[in-house]
Amino acid sequence: MRYEDRIELTDNLSAKRLFELMAEKESNLSVAADLSDPNELVKLVENVGDEICLLKTHIDIVTDFTPELIDTLVDLKEKHKFMIFEDRKFADIGNTVKLQYSQGIYKIVDWADITNAHSVPGPGIIEGLREVGLDKGRGLLLLAEMSPEGNLAKGEYTKTSVQWAEEYDDFVIGFIGMKRLSDDPKFITMTPGVKLGGGGDGLRQQYNTPEKAIMDGSDVIIVGRGIYQADNQKQAAKDYRTAGWNAYLQREQ
Ligand code: S5P
Questions:
Q1: Pick from 23, 52, 178, 251: most CB atoms within 10 A?
Q2: What separation, in Å, do the N-terminal and C-terminal C-alpha atoms of the chain show?
Q3: What residues are in contact with ligand 1 under a 6 Å CB criterion?
Q4: Which residue's alpha carbon is nearest to atom 4 within ligand 1?
């Protein structure tokens, strides 16, 4: 199904907005902005902002973090029209993740439209995050699968994650997965480990091409080093955007 036809299938505001934005902007590209220098991070976002539907951050890798950085990212989000996904990978009990999501120095729930969690602690992790995120219209992705060689997110673990998404579908908007994991089109699958040319990274990351990810039923390709390490970040983002979007058009024909 086309992204615009999926808007009405979900009640979650972040999922609706993302489908809308992807269709409007003709982009299913998310950039993983894994840069520690805040100035380099902002420069990257300025370079790629027009090409992406979603900015994926790891806010805790930023050296000398200040709350002003969040203000800058939110300003860029409004200017270039994208959403923000803080890739926090929560993994604790419900009560603790609730605090990690809303308190501390990052106050993730205040600015990140989307975040994600491991399923390993059980459904309490979803319930804890949902208590603070749902009223703010936030969305959660479950890490039902992962990209690196040797990871344990497979089989029953993946299946149970999909069941929990169905159970908490007002807040869980989809998955990190290597392929489509649910037949229900309201769920969004985002795939990391994407690089033109494929390959790996020496630390067991495994790359697929944008075409392979989209043809396997993914909705959003997540690209980090393929874009931020390129000599021309803007051009690289354009290339990945075109590859992801063309694969989607071909899939939906
Ligand atoms: O299984 C996963 C899940 C995630 S969210 N594998 C991943 O690589 N990621 C994230 O995607 C990872 O934390 C990083 O931010 C990005 C991949 O970056 P790249 O430089 O390898 O493209």
A1: 52
A2: 10
A3: 32, 34, 58, 87, 146-147, 176, 192-193, 205, 222-226
A4: 192
